[in-house]
Amino acid sequence: MWKGMLECHQIQCQAISEANFLDSIASGGQLSDSHVNAIMQLELELLGWMGNFASWIYLQKSFVKSLNGWLVLCLHYEPEVTADGVPPYSPGRIGAPPAFVIFNCWFQSLDRLSEKDVLHSMKSFASRVKQIWQQNDIELRQKMIVNREVERLQKKREREAQVINKELEALNRKLDITSLQDSLLPSQPAEPGSLRSSLKQVLEALESFTTNSLKAYEDVRARAEEEKAAIGAQI
Q1: Domain limits of the chain?
Q2: What sequence ranges are listed for the domain DUF632 (predicted)?
């Protein structure tokens, strides 16, 4: 899975590097009401993407942590106090069966992975998208004042903003669960910059995270093969 995802993210990074039209669209002058609606919908999708990614990684880590913790309870393990303190838990050192060693290796590998760079880049890109539709919405309202349509537009935007705020509240709850709330929210206004570069940072962060995840699972697989070979040598 991680190998397939890495290949996809590498292709995406290459594609976005060549997508010069993105910034021209964002700075192409006054956008229509339908364009602003589409950009608001994009922000909604980004918030959902961010929340789903955070939940997905958190659940994977929690699953492995729970399994490893359950296995630890099956051992009569008493931490040995040395002059340097208590050494980290190592089932291999105390002669535990291979399953204990492999699950602990799996837990340690995932625990070292950090998804914060991905979520930070996603948040920054979502903030940049929000800036675009807010700026164009102000200009659109000013234009509609002449046509006396600003009240209708204001009510419409309020309804759309409520939907975005609900999605943001849902995201906040997910980040609370994953213990990332303090590091990511409340969000600060995004620095002015290229829309393409913001999206590229997201994809590059995903590529890096996927690369690290792939290596983590390769390490776990190698450890499992070592344990298998050790058992074969004892037979």
Answers
A1: 2-74+107-234
A2: 1-130
3-state secondary structure of 184: helix
Question: Distances from the Cα of 81 to the Cαs of 85, 86, 87, 88, in angstroms?
Answer: 6, 5, 7, 11
CA angle 177, 118, 59 (to 5 degrees): 35
CA 15, 16, 18, 24 torsion-angle sign: positive
> What SS3 class is residue 6?
helix
Taking only the tens of pLDDT, the chain with its 235 residues reads 999 999 999 999 999 888 877 766 656 556 677 777 888 888 888 888 988 898 899 999 999 999 999 998 888 767 666 666 666 777 877 788 889 999 999 999 999 999 999 999 998 898 888 888 777 766 666 655 555 555 565 566 667 767 777 777 777 766 766 655 555 544 445 455 678 888 999 999 999 999 999 999 999 999 999 888 887 777 6
